[in-house]
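Narrative of activities, Objective 1.

The group set out to show that a structural description can be obtained from nothing but a protein's sequence at a throughput compatible with the screening campaign. Below is one input-output pair from the validation batch, recorded exactly as produced.
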Amino acid sequence: MNDLGETHLRTWTLRMMALLAADPLDQLAWLGERELETKDLVKEAELLCRVFEAHAEHEALEAEDLRNLRAIGRHLGKVDATCRVGLWGNALTTDPAWDDIRSLTRRFLHTMLGNWRQPLPSPVHPPEDNH
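Output recorded for this entry:
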């Protein structure tokens, strides 16, 4: 992967981690009126964990950062199929797995960046229906 691709991967991963680490009220505010399926968020976050880990040698990740990243991936993988159904906003308030994931991503961001409080990614707005 070239430097631009690795920079994009790092940025994308850290933005996802910032979203997962945010307080539940901030996550819900970020969601706003958007309907984000839990399964889609989990799949994207798991993918980012795997790809970022695969490029860890380029990132020069510390051993603790790598352990934290793997723990996040494992916890995301433990979100069972029934808890992946429905909207993420609903899952945030009903599934305690998100508290564990939040704690792990905070630890990851804190050890990697020195502070888990990071700007949330810009929300992606669904395309408008012009019909």
